[in-house]
TrEMBL record:
It holds the Pfam family DUF7586. Residues 20-334 form the Beta-lactamase-related domain. Its EC number is 3.1.1.103. This is Serine hydrolase. The keyword Hydrolase applies. The lineage of its organism: Bacteria, Bacillati, Actinomycetota, Actinomycetes, Kitasatosporales. InterPro entries: AmpC-like, Beta-lactam-related, Beta-lactam/transpept-like, DUF7586. It comes from the Bacteria. Residues 353-437 form the DUF7586 domain. Gene3D superfamilies: DD-peptidase/beta-lactamase superfamily.
Amino acid sequence: MTTPAEQLLPGTQRALLHRIATAQTEGRSPSLAAAVQRQGQTVWNGSRTCVDGHGPDTDTQFRIGSLTKTFTAVLVLRLRDEGLLDLADPLEKHLPGTGAGEATIHQLLGHSAGLGAESPAPWWERTPGSLRPELADVLGEQTRMHAPGRRHHYSNPGYTVLGALIETMRGAPWAQVLRRELLEPLGMHRTGPQPEAPHAGGWAVHPWADAMLPEPAEDLGLMAPAGQLWSTTADLLRFAAFLAEGDDRVLCTASVEEMKEPSAPPESGDWEGNYGLGLQVIRRKGRTLVGHTGSLPGFLAALWLCAEENVAAVVFANVTSGPLIGEVAAELVDIVAEAEPRIPEPWRPLPEVDAELLALTGPWYWGTRPNILRLTPDRGLELRGLRGDGRGARFTARPDGSWIGLDGYYAGETLRIVRNDDGSVNHLDLGSFVFTREPYDPAADVPGGVDENGWRGLGG
């Protein structure tokens, strides 16, 4: 059981406040709101504003832009988990006639379907969605910029297509499905496609003068699944808690974890960032952050979750450009993780020990390379190189007595325990590689055999 999160130390709280104050001042944002969660509980929130006494609180709505895509991705994964589609299915199978039908649902989720980044003119973020009443108006004449599956190319129209897929398969509008299947179960009552007071107004700030201009807040129509939502810091932290552990009322843990896995090669030169299924994935300071950033005219938003530290941060600003919101949110996670590192749970022995599994643990050799096989608390197995090198992985049992790799080099590969006629273990077979109890054990069935003269010195 997770221990309740303790309140942050005063020094940590001041560092967080200093960071958002600097962001609001240097980024020249009319207002900026932020909140931090640790172990599923809100431990800090703060805001800065140019209007004295009117700072936004955790219940103030801001537009979250492309963070909406993560919500849309969850709805698609729900369809998959219900058996209504496969992520490898071409779009044409479920939504014919789009002109982008050869792209798979997986490619659309991970922005590798090759579709264009934006819809045809006029600029969709500042014009009514009624100007694009059909999918053809969103996709345009040139539906494909790149061959599907070849590269990551961020696509707003791609998520419009996924929204249409959801509506077709559910027989209901995207916003209605979202409310029923995700927002209500998670208690996100202040998140929705239209603003509800109290909410921030969107502004543009002149790049060379301290002057402001109001931005329009258009209904995006068919583009809504790519960027329509409004939300609060409190609601997005509820969503962050869901992304940390899953929630069977919405999406199981395994499917949420699948969303966090990189889905396509990163852009050339960008080895610190990647994209999963509706989630951005970045590496910084030895930690992995998952989440999403978002922007629409008048608004910036970011949510980052660090699973290793169980810390999440949300940042909003009501300005078209200025503060580097994604960086600010990541730095809030850094501040908490570095000032108050996570205290690990107490070590506890297994509730029960399976003697047969216990007998498999210990050293195993792939040729002459030593590895260690360990029993994990969830009755799984973990194989790692003795010196931290080699191809490690975790495994979970299958009903037929074999094991399937969960991660690393052997993800999806089969581990088999090969036994002698008397039931004793001869060797482990992992994707055709043989692991033996001794280096090239002559008693084991090693491909190519073992020289009958055994090990020898230079003169042998």
